[in-house]
Design goal:
Blueprint: H1 2-20, H2 23-26, H3 31-43, H4 56-60, H5 66-70, H6 78-87, H7 98-101, H8 131-142, E1 152-158, E2 166-172, E3 178-184, E4 190-196, E5 201-207, E6 220-230, E7 233-243
Antiparallel strand pairs: 1-2, 2-5, 3-4, 3-6, 6-7
Helix pairs in contact: 3-6, 3-8
Length: 245
């Protein structure tokens, strides 16, 4: 058990280290919306670049392809994909985000897509009016319309790792209209959802390591997302915890 807990702590440190590289984006970008709207474009949408009938995953999802090292995508690992996309998003200047400029044709203001200067993006059909371009841009812009992201100052589970239960504590600087706390597996599946309290200060939900059907879950790292709705927008903050039954 001691070795398992130590391994769990090591995994948490590694995971938090990865998340820290996209901390600014994670605090505001909507993870649920990423899974619902953005990731399908990366994994399943067929484009004409770099060749007809390919997807982003065709190159960026292959560890043998140089594109993977520059912008890795993983099948069945939406959390890692979210981190990859967060690294190529600029919240302060959305239109300069590589997530938009790399797939956009040079003639429309984009950047060279591949390792050759003439390999321009064809994902957005040579125009910023493409529906998929607009969908990704709106996802970024919606995260930057106000400073509401700072209204959740921190989240932290205690104890962590945990065996019987943990309390996911989140701190609000402004009273929210509603709060939802969601727990995800490493594969990105929602395993538990809680309605949280909405008052200023420390709030908490308790999780016992079971899914929505009250079935015990296996040992491992779990991700949680605290999403608060305010009168003028939404704030979200994510974190990790280790379950060691």
């Amino acid at each position: 058990m001691k070795a398992l807990v130590q391994r769990g702590l090591a995994l948490v440190i590694v995971t938090i280290g990865l998340a820290a590289k996209a901390e600014a984006a994670q605090g505001i970008l909507d993870y649920e919306r990423f899974m619902r709207e953005i990731q399908p474009l990366l994994i399943t949408q067929t484009y004409n670049s770099p060749a007809p009938g390919t997807t982003c995953f065709s190159c960026h999802g292959s560890t043998s392809n140089a594109a993977f090292s520059a912008f890795p995508l993983y099948d069945g690992r939406p959390r890692d994909n979210f981190l990859s996309v967060s690294r190529v998003v600029k919240l302060d200047q959305p239109d300069t985000s590589l997530a938009l400029l790399k797939p956009l044709a040079i003639a429309a203001g984009g950047l060279a897509h591949g390792f050759f200067g003439n390999d321009a993006g064809e994902q957005f059909q040579n125009t910023t009016n493409d529906a998929n371009y607009i969908k990704i841009r709106n996802w970024i812009v919606d995260a930057t319309r106000s400073s509401i992201g700072a209204r959740i100052t921190r989240t932290e589970p205690y104890p962590n790792p945990f065996r019987f239960h943990t309390e996911i504590v989140y701190v609000l600087t402004t009273a929210a209209r509603s709060v939802r706390v969601m727990v995800f597996s490493q594969e990105g599946h929602t395993v538990r959802t809680f309605d949280g309290t909405t008052v200023v200060g420390a709030n908490r939900v308790q999780w016992n390591g079971r899914d929505s059907g009250d079935e015990p879950l296996p040992t491992g790292i779990y991700f949680y997302n605290v999403k608060a709705e305010f009168e003028d927008g939404t704030a979200a903050k994510a974190g990790t915890c280790v379950y060691t039954p």
